[in-house]
Amino acid sequence: MKPLTELQIRTKLKELNEWEYANNALQTSFEFNSFKDAFSLMTRIAFEAEKLNHHPNWTNVYNYLEINLSTHDADGVTEKDFKLAKIIDELAG
Fold first, then answer.
1. Closest CA to 29 of 61, 53, 77
2. pTM
3. For position 53, which CATH number holds?
4. Which residue segment(s) compose the domain that 20 sits in?
5. Is Disulfide bond given among the entry's keywords (predicted)?
């Protein structure tokens, strides 16, 4: 799978909620009321990521979740990253 160009990425970012392109990845973050709420979203994302065989890089500290998406074997952002980002947006509601 080929990585998208920066122009393609910036255009497709308009389809997502509060994601940005930095450090060769799609990035977003969430803040929740509790650790349980953060972990609940992580669990739902994990099931969807497993179906796609495409897994996020993420960091969770208490009620804060930061997510970075890139396709490592393509060395950049691909359609797979946008597909997972859209699913994450839907799950986060």
1. 61
2. 0.95
3. 3.30.1360.20
4. 6-92
5. no
